[in-house]
Amino acid sequence: MADDRTASWFTVLGPVRAWQGETELRLGSPQQRAVLAALLVREGAQATIGELIDAVWGSGDIPESAAQTVRTYVHRLRRVLDPGRPAAQSVIASIGDGYALTAAAGTLDLGVFKQHVADAQAAANFRDLGRAERLLREALALWHGTALAGIPGEYAETQRVYLGKLRLAALELLMTAQLELGSATEAAAELATITAEHPYDERFRELHMTALYRSGRQAEALAVYQDCQKLLANELGIDPGPALQELHEQVLRGEVPPAQHSAATARPGSGFRAGAGSPDDPSTARPVPAQLPADHRGFSGRKTELLAAVQKLDRAGVAVITGMAGVGKTTFAVHLAHRFAGRYPDGQLYLDLRGFASGAEPVAPEDALRSLLEALDVPAETIPRDLAGRAAMFRTLLSGRRILLLLDNAKNAEQVRPLLPGEATSLVLITSRDRLTSLLVTDDADLITLDVLEPAEARTFLVGKLGARRVGAEPEAAEEILRRCGRLPLAISLVAARAIVNPGFSLAAIAAELSHRDGLDAFEDLDGADVRSVFSWSYNALSPDSARLFRVMCPAPWPRYDLTGAASLAGLPVSETRRLIAELSRVNLITEERPGEFAFHDLVRAYGVEKAAAGDPQERHDALVRALNHTLYTARAAVVLLNPTRRTIPLVPLRDDVTVRPIKDRAAAWAWFAAESPMIGTCQRLAAEAGLDVYVGQLAWTVNTYLLRSGQWAEMLSVYERALAAATRLGDDYLIATASMVAGKTETWLHQYDAADQHLTRAIAGFHAAGRTTEEANAVDSLGNLRSFQGRSAEAIEQFQKAVKLSSDVSSRASALNNLANEYNTTGDYSVAVPICLQAVELWDGAGDQHGLANGWDTLGTSHRGLGHYAEAAGCYRQAFEAFRELGNRYNEARTLINYAAAVEALDDGQAALEARASAAEILRDLDHPDAVRLAGQLEPTLSR
């Protein structure tokens, strides 16, 4: 049950509205409602900041502050939907670079509408037309006017078109069900209104004519056709479509059948082809094949995929159901086939093509055709010997017939293409680990891709195996099992089987067993259906080069791969790597998550790591060296864009067999670090284990700027502790001093003052002994910061003044001056601070150091505020936080927004202060920063006014 403080009902099928119990909530401006609408129509999926910006501004002029404005809208929506709750517990969750509205199932009219329609379709497929009609009327009753009414912009209009099509599809199903129930007169009355509203939609013209004819109103049915014919000719210059023309001819001849072929006309399990004889007289009836395997009695989930499939397969044709090994393609296809079986009364054929089976050759097309022809009662002696002859006979037999054909486990398009009917009166469902792309191009096939189960569906799946009581008794252990299984249906089934066989085992014990057993050992099964074996069938089908690429990619320290990274791992050109990855992708061993970005499922990666470990050690070592070299130089390219004035250090040479990922601008550099910085630490650990210590320190240098600007100080300390250990092993005094200085800086920010003192003192001594004056100045400057944090202002001022004298580098001197001015601000000597800070600003400006300049403006703003110059202070702060925002330094942006709020509040601009503090609070919550709680204390009293 939803928390009583949380909105309990949302609507998009009409105006965008929300209720908390019986109280409607005030959702704010149309633009703010547009953000909520974009989150709602995704039904729990993530919407990135970019997508939300599109939802508000579309292709119009997008302001520079768009991202911040969207975050402000989200903040306000959270306060409306979840009053009094922290952002981390809000129904609007922060996910990556965006948000998702994680409302409970059944609280969104769109979700309820879709579920009713899907259930109605299932009921119609099983001839329960009364239930189908009732569900469809309940679904359509959820509509209250035009979808997303009152929401401006292109995005909302696109969604309105999509949702409108869903409504029309539901209307068509409703009218069809009503006709099949024999309510032609009532249907005719409703259809008169519908056709008037949608005069160009020939689906409803057909239904209207049929309803009138069955009501004994043949002349009126013909008039409907003539009206449509005239409208299309005058307005569009075209004739009605073939289906409507054929119906017109049938009405003229009085030959409209009492019921069309539909889910209502076929009797399940009758065993006879309609019209071929009488079920009461077997001697006159021809048996009809009914070969579908039994539907899985515990089938659950896959609502989104099922709804998409129902919409795609509304008419006969070909559909390819693809996905990785163990994802449940066959189970899904069999369930789908049973749902559609009633539409194909001439039979259902099933054939396992063994495309990826263990220990068996794939079924040859000619052998498959023999099996299919025999299933259609063709005498063996009349079956042609050659492939072309068999294919022609099969197409001839299926001509004009309505048959459902399920081809399971296909290897490739060449195996399947000879088995396809020649006419679009039958439905062909094909499952394969290969995407069979050429069928999509040449045979107009639809593609249905299955991924791992959604979290809620995975839990339901486990409940279906073990029962609600057992899962409900240990919910945390159940979630850990699902996490370990990667929400892969096969893995969940194997673990559930172990729990069923051992009812005395707790789920916590089974979860612990999963965490302690290596790789895929936890998913072994004596019957040969274990995860390792199933993956091996895909792996064994690879070419040698693709298999090698798979082996070198899986152990790599990256969560995802682009083509340059994969090429570097293999030591191959990008063009060759693209071809090999396409082979991995076709058999669903790897997934293209975004254009040009690929990832393995955790269990597939575990299998690949096993294959690599069993292979050539030199192959693994060489791939690791190339991975480190690629990561180092890609990170170097990114950090140069983020901090062009930063002094570079000499790096190991770029290898000839390594390709550096191109990074075009500062935004792309920030995005790369945001996505990939966690794996820098992994790269460091692997480098240290392999005795490649030189990479450990150099990788730390590349990530320093990003971690500093994003406020990830704990991670920064870990990175430099590893760098210090590597420098110590190498015996390099300069690297030891460098790593000690950064570690000391970070420990200062983390309030670990004793450790910081030791590291900074060591760094100063090391740089002084090496004659590295600029680095010594930086270390002295850092020691001044430590003294400032300790509240020892006199000592801090002394160290900053010493750093200014030592500095020969412009940015270093400016930094020391700025810190000195900050310390005078701390002691209340604002008039002393102003000229010092202006020197720093001038130096940074001349050097083109935008990040330093932003720091200077922030310090100068504090000096002016201390002197009571609030307008000047607000102007300085605005320049600072806008620069930090542009640079992506969200932590400093938040700190400066808090300062700005204080300045404008002193100018009696309470609204600007409120919005600035709200934005700062949102940033701090999103960052989950160590200082967030302390700084948030400055925000909440104002936000609650």
Automatic annotation (TrEMBL):
Protein's UniProt keywords contain Transcription: yes
Residue ranges of TPR repeats: 777-810
Domain OmpR/PhoB-type: 1-103
Residues in the DNA-binding region annotation: 1-103
Region (Disordered): 258-297
Short name of one Pfam family: TPR_8
Family: Belongs to the AfsR/DnrI/RedD regulatory family.
PANTHER family: TRANSCRIPTIONAL REGULATOR REDD, TRANSCRIPTIONAL REGULATOR REDD-RELATED
The protein's name: BTAD domain-containing putative transcriptional regulator
Protein's organism: Kribbella lupini
